[in-house]
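#onboarding

Welcome to the new folks! Below is a worked example of what a typical request in this channel looks like: someone posts a single protein sequence, and someone else replies with the predicted structure as tokens. Don't worry about understanding the tokens yet, we'll cover that in week two.

Example request:
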Amino acid sequence: MTRVRMGIGVSVLEMEGKFAEDEFTRFADYSIFCYNQCMSPIRRTKHAVYDTKYHLVWIPKYRKHIFTKEISNYSKEIFQRIAEGYEFEIDSMEVMKEHVHLFLSAAPRYSPARIVQIMKSISSREVFRRFPYLKEILWKMELWSDGYFVHTIGDRVTAGVV
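Example response:
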């Protein structure tokens, strides 16, 4: 008999090339493999396996209502480009008139404070470059307020499960 690895499970091939296991077992093996490789929230780097998700919220300086439709859409594009460059995965994003919501996943090498710093600093520079008239509305070239809100999002794993 020859053993062939199929995902997580092992299917046994007989010498004639027929599967010794029934169709259901093969389907179950493939389903487990596909879930773990395709749909799993678990992400990997060279030295870490992780599932970190953050809900981030911050406001523009002085809570000014500066986000018109054009600025809002451009900000979303900038956030997507930043996320791609730093390998963040944005699950959802909303740029409102007076605040920004981001739900994202990031590698553990980035602290939540560092993620916010990256997103705010780069987006600020790019928004001011594209919309220079904002310099008159917001002084000192500061688009974002200093503070932010962060909430870690878990999958409600209890100590009994662990």
